[in-house]
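Re-run requested by the PI after the first attempt was lost when the workstation crashed. Everything re-entered from the original request form. Ligand of interest: adenosine monophosphate.
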Amino acid sequence: MSLLTVGTVAFDSIETPYGKADRVVGGACTYISLAASYFTNDINLVSVVGDDFPDSELKYMKKRGINLDGLDIKEGEKSFFWAGKYHDNMNKRDTLATELNVLADFNPKLPASYKNSKYLMLGNLTPEIQMKVIKQMKKRPKLIVLDTMNFWMDIAMPALKKVIKKVDVLTINDEEARQLSGEYSLVKAAKVIHKMGPKYLIIKKGEHGALLFQGEKMFYAPALPLAEVFDPTGAGDTFAGGFIGYIAKTGNTSFENMKRAVIYGSAMASFCVEEFSIGKLKKLNARTINSRVKKFSSLVNFKLD
Ligand code: AMP
């Protein structure tokens, strides 16, 4: 069923303990849409790039069933650019540069064909843009998921809180959950965040997996222990893309199905980190994804005697 994805389509420069990648393809919406494309081929992307973004990458996205009618290509302007450097502990990174470029004055206009999309994935970008997209929907989507980061909490908290109020699922990492709620305990943070609007909360904990909360209900998905993590960039977005892609494919928004979606999201994220940029996300198929999901299942499966 139709899925509307919003977020950055960008260039990234990345340094990890394993090496460097300069001006490679990145962006929250790129990772989200590619991950989701392994579950549904009815994806409507909303974003903005400059004329520096490679045509070949856009062609590739189209080939994967991602509709780019909502991608604004600004002549003579530069795409969003982010640079980051990871510590030896790759759960930690420093942002070296965030250049908004085309994003600074982006005013999204949804093509008519997008306005009835059943699922809405608001990836990381300006909260004002996330709100503008919600407002243009003809009918409220069955599920609205929002991903954001500390950058927007630091510079746009009031606007971010307004948009958070409108969504069903919020996905953030543990430090962001603490920043947003003012609580250190993630259980207490979840309670505070539920009161802000979202019925469901997913807290991503990098190599330590992810937690799904709905009121008193809680579910924990581990991350797959990997021998080598080359580049964690986009893992959170890939998780979100796998999560919403699985929900869109199954059309089921129950807590039980969300648990499965969290595992599919975690499986997609485990692929993402194995190569720089979107390298690995280009090489998957249903068979490789399902066999990875089985690994997650056996990782936590045990018998009570
Ligand atoms: P993640 O590692 O999941 O947090 O996502 C990293 C991706 O998000 C990179 O490909 C960046 O291009 C993009 N990104 C970084 N900072 C921002 C920001 N402030 N707003 C939107 N996208 C961003």
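Saved to the shared folder this time. The chain is about 35% helix and 25% strand.
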